């Protein structure tokens, strides 16, 4: 497999390059929606110029961005790049993660109040806002930690720009505002919630919709629009509201961070006419593929420009313009390639473990649990308690909750183990169980291994 060099498609696109966003003369364009007056492009240019001028006078080169407000974050990102400096985004905005990132950087930007205005004149703005070099403008992000400790990944503005152009070629053309139920400080939220809307001329909502009712209110006030969301939220949405109320208001849902439950996808398809657009990818790879689940088809279509292959070990291998490497990139995802160019994913190869010398795919065990009529979602991990055992966190549906109340934890666990015995040896079956109302997804919509393990540190655990 030979990787082709990145195309210059982004430079031929009608979209505004990231390096030129603040040189755009369309000052009356609405950039962002708030709970008050909208934010216009003229304010973005002014704020970016002031912060960039201040940063240019500072000795430090690497700046940590930790603003919870998406507008402040966007201004800070563009200002750092216009100042010719580098950005680090912490693994999360929790104090410990911000502190660790800042200890390895030269400064912290956690809001627009952390700097002083240094220029107001149009001449200064024009000088400060000259287009930056997108290949040399760098951004360090961290992986989600779903398979271990977060890992630092470096991206250039040019890589992000190439991905935005591909997204626009697939789903662009509409100028509706973008609403979000996910934060902006990971690669999915950054691209879909901030950079893609900004470059394509669509307003983004600065408020994060933490509940379906809040999303509906924002759509009523400013819609119709597109919604950037996650599987953990979309899987629950059909149980929380009547999806019919979103008809004509939410024109498209995006989902990334993990697979969307086929049942939930079917609800959206049946009621709204189309399933959410799911994006398969990672911080390391950027976007890889997409799908809209229909009629049980769970295959993925590579994004334009992404080439795929399969390694001897069965892993998905890809060449992508969104990766800063000319060599093929081997993922940890077990894949089957289809004749029509699409592929299927069968869980992560690094989630294959050995219990008592027997191999177990944790992904397969989770999938088999979800097939049980009482189970909505499931997550499995391995614990070491003198020996390695499988522990499972299960979110039950309404029927499952009723069974839990009637049978109790021990009997319910036995029922689920009996179900799993159809496919797994007894030694591989879960020995510890937890039954929370929802799985402990983090703000990225991911299940971090540490968060799952923490659920078994208390005594409220049923053993087999």
From TrEMBL:
It comes from the Bacteria. GO terms for molecular function: ligase activity. Residues 130-302 form the AMP-dependent synthetase/ligase domain. SUPFAM superfamilies: Acetyl-CoA synthetase-like. Keywords: Ligase. InterPro entries: AMP-bd_C_sf, AMP-dep_synth/lig_dom, ANL_N_sf, ATP-dep_AMP-bd_enzyme. Pfam families: AMP-binding (PF00501). This is AMP-binding protein. It comes from Azoarcus taiwanensis.
């Amino acid at each position: 497999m030979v990787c082709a060099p990145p195309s210059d498609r982004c430079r031929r696109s009608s979209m505004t390059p990231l390096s030129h966003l603040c040189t755009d003369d369309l000052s009356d364009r609405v950039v962002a929606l708030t709970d008050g007056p909208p934010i216009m492009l003229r304010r973005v240019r002014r704020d970016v110029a002031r912060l960039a001028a201040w940063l240019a006078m500072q000795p430090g080169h690497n700046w940590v961005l930790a603003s919870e407000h998406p507008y402040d974050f966007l201004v800070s990102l563009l200002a750092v790049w216009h100042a010719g400096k580098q950005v680090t985004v912490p693994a999360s905005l929790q104090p410990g993660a911000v502190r660790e990132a800042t200890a390895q950087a030269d400064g912290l930007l956690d809001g627009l109040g952390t700097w002083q205005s240094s220029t107001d004149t149009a001449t200064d703005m024009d000088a400060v806002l000259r287009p930056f070099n997108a290949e040399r403008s760098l951004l360090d992000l961290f992986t989600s930690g779903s398979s271990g400790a977060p890992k630092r990944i470096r991206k250039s503005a040019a890589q992000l720009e190439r991905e935005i152009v591909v997204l626009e070629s697939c789903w662009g053309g509409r100028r509706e505002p973008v609403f979000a139920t996910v934060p902006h400080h990971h690669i999915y939220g950054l691209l879909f919630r901030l950079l893609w809307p900004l470059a394509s001329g669509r307003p983004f909502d600065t408020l994060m919709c933490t509940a379906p009712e809040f999303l509906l209110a924002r759509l009523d006030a400013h819609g119709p629009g597109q919604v950037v969301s996650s599987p953990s939220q979309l899987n629950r949405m059909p149980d929380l509201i009547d999806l019919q109320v979103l008809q004509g208001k939410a024109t498209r849902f995006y989902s990334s961070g993990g697979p969307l439950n086929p049942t939930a996808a079917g609800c959206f398809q049946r009621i709204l006419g189309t399933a959410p657009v799911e994006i398969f990818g990672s911080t390391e790879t950027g976007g890889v593929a997409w799908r809209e689940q229909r009629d049980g088809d769970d295959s993925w279509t590579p994004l334009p420009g992404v080439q795929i292959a399969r390694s001897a070990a069965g892993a998905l291998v890809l060449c992508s313009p969104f990766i800063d490497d000319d060599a093929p990139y081997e993922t940890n995802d077990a894949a089957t390639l289809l004749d029509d160019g699409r592929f299927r994913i069968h869980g992560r190869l690094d989630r294959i473990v050995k219990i008592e010398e027997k191999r177990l795919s944790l992904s397969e065990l989770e999938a088999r649990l979800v097939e049980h009529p009482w189970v909505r979602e499931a997550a499995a991990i391995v614990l070491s308690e003198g020996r390695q055992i499988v522990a499972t966190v299960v979110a039950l549906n309404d029927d499952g909750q009723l069974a839990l109340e009637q049978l109790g934890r021990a009997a319910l666990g036995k029922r689920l183990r009996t179900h799993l015995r159809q496919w797994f040896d007894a030694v591989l079956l879960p020995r510890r169980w937890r039954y929370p109302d929802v799985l402990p997804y983090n703000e990225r919509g991911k299940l971090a291994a540490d968060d799952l393990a923490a659920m078994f540190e208390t005594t409220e655990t049923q053993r087999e």
